[in-house]
Specification:
This protein is α/β, with parallel strands linked by helices and 146 residues long. It has helices at residues 20-33, 39-52, 111-121, 124-132, 136-143; strands at 11-14, 57-59, 61-65, 77-88, 95-103.
Length: 146
């Protein structure tokens, strides 16, 4: 199962970050630089977590940061920040090393990406490989099933 929208230029591998806000901001940078959305979308993602809690942590080690579609989002996209040392999103077991950023232009266009991502991340062996990967190219190969 492939995620065509996630390419090596949208994947970063970093040792650690100071906090979850920095993780979201850093994870979003490839999409911001490639004009997928405006800076305000990053603020909206961070504000959503502040208001709603760590709902973006969908499983141990996995977070999918996103916000409501708005005019600041120009295209559907996906990026990934892989941390060698996970970051806590709360004190209660909400932590992640794989921080995906999903940009959505409406309520439907991104659903295929989410389905494919769920299929990939539903395989614990694949998740374990992603957690030990050290380069963007290695991560892309794992996601593409190579």
């Amino acid at each position: 199962m492939s995620l065509e929208t996630l390419s090596a230029d949208k994947v970063q591998v970093v040792d650690q970050v100071d906090d979850w806000e920095q993780a979201i901001n850093l994870a979003a940078q490839p999409l911001l630089k490639q004009d997928y959305f405006e800076q305000s979308y990053i603020k909206a993602m961070i504000d959503s977590v502040k208001q709603l809690g760590p709902y973006i942590v969908i499983a141990p080690e996995i977070a999918i940061a996103h916000a409501r579609p708005n005019d600041d989002v120009k295209q559907v996209g996906l990026s990934l920040l892989k941390l060698n040392h996970h970051i806590n999103f709360s004190e209660n077991d909400h932590y992640a090393s794989l921080i995906f950023v999903l940009s959505a232009i409406d309520n439907e266009a991104h659903l295929a990406i989410l389905r494919n991502l769920a299929a990939i991340l539903g395989n614990q062996e694949t998740v374990n490989k992603l957690l030990t990967a050290q380069t963007a190219e290695e991560i892309i190969n794992i996601i593409q099933g190579e």
